[in-house]
Amino acid sequence: xxxxxxxxxxxxxxxxxxxxxxxxxxxxxxxxxxxxxxxxxxxxxxxxxxxxxxxxxxxxxxxxxxxxxxxxxxxxxxxxxxxxxxxxxxxxxxxxxxxxxxxxxxxxxxxxxxxxxxxxxxxxxxxxxxxxxxxxxxxxxxxxxxxxxxxxxxxxxxxxxxxxxxxxxxxxxxxxxxxxxxxxxxxxxxxxxxxxxxxxxxxxxxxxxxxxxxxxxxxxxxxxx
Length: 225
Known about the structure:
It is a single chain. By secondary structure, this protein is of the alpha+beta class. The protein has 2 domains: 38 residues; 147 residues, CATH 3.30.1330. The protein is 44% helix and 16% strand. The protein contains 8 helices and 5 strands, in the order αααββαααβααββ. It has a 5-stranded mixed beta sheet with strand order 1-2-5-3-4. A hairpin with a 4-residue loop joins strand 1 and strand 2. The longest helix has 20 residues.
């Protein structure tokens, strides 16, 4: 009991001491500099610059553009893809498996799927993440314009020939594309910011094209905000 009483008194003493103490940055900075110079392998210089929350080239360091964030999203959620960025034109081309893209949009975007006991926790963490993140990045572009996405599913033959020779196959593909497009629209992406289509290419793939959506001004008097 005596030891416990002494411990409680000592704890109360430090609580009171911490309560009445004050913080003086001018006195703390030399101490932190000394500790950093002694123990750190790389000394960090303290300055008055704080993280910027405005679009400033001088202050906003390593924030990344919308395309960088979109690419990071695909790397994190769909690693098996190929991406080409063109920062000068503000465009990005992504090629990936249509199955992977459909699974990310529908299965992780609110659809149903089978889960094993080993991946239940991981599935809960990823549930609904890809689609909301994709829509949020496309709607919040630092240039002032949202991004649009063109979705082209590739088939091994000319789509026109497939439609004539095997219409049931074409109907199946169109239904899959429509389902994905509907899920994306329900996720919050306006219809005007997305187009879908079919082209000849590697079977089972889908190509995504991201570019700023700048409304057309028929009067030709500058850009429409």
